[in-house]
Amino acid sequence: MENRTEVSEFILLGFGTVLELKKLLFAIFFMLYLATLLGNGTIFIVVLIEQQLHRPMYFFLGNLSCLDIFHSSTTVPKMLSGFLLELQIISFNDCMIQLFFFYFLGSSEAILLGVMAYDRYVAICKPLHYTIIMRKEVCILMAAASLSTGFLHALMHAVVTAYLPFCGSNHIEHFVCDTKPLLKLACGSTQLSLMLLNIVTSCIAIGPFLITVISYLYIITFLLFKMQSQSGRQKAFSTCGSHLSMVALLYVPVLLNYMIPTVGTSSQRDMILTLMYSAITPVLNPLIYTLRNHEVKRAVKKIWGKKSLFVGCK
Q1: Spatial distance between the Cα atoms of 62 and 68, rounded to a whole number of angstroms
Q2: Which residues pair with 14 in a beta bridge?
Q3: Closest C-alpha among 91, 123, 111 to residue 240
């Protein structure tokens, strides 16, 4: 029988090939992370306390901001520590926990974007039935379904990966514990994990993406051929443009990374794609929505004005 040494910890190699840029990269991504926390935190608080934003669209936006904060916090702090430490060691259990939350939050966000597209379709194409279709109970159910699906998807990957036999090398060619780089280190068969990536993960990404595409085909058709009001058309296009920008920023790198996953793909390519939707997209979402959405901007100014007045009175 072959003698095997079980792996109890992994070493995340991250961006080890750019040693001379580590301090610069740390500064850049640290500032991006702070901006992510500040931007998404502001949107979440504004949506929570501002009465005029207690509508389905902003309910989902608040959920999205919350997911962005936690998703970014799952990957970026560990990546930042890798820029400062010579060896970035993570235990086997911590690696599986990170993998779980990475998939849980990422897939929940992908599904939520599909839900937001459906919300825009109902609001624009069926305005008279909007309050009935998108009532509070339905919105909560949709958000809960997004989280539940993401939870089950993440649990599936975490359990299957955790039961793989790991021996020999424990160097992960990535800055996060993702399934694809971990499969390169597995000693046993990885066919089940690859099948789950090919089928389940692709469906999790493609399903909401197709819902988004179909919803916007209906929306564009309605705006071009049935809506007569020019101002209403411009407002609808502005709102939809914000959502479509978010969709493109998330779905494009995710689909490129997981549509046809193989163990032998470039680790540098995988890291860049992962970096886009785990560190860069979360910081852009608040900018896209606050710069293009007048209601959010007014609410932020209103709350900031109250805070400034309170500070001045003190």
Answers
A1: 10
A2: none
A3: 123
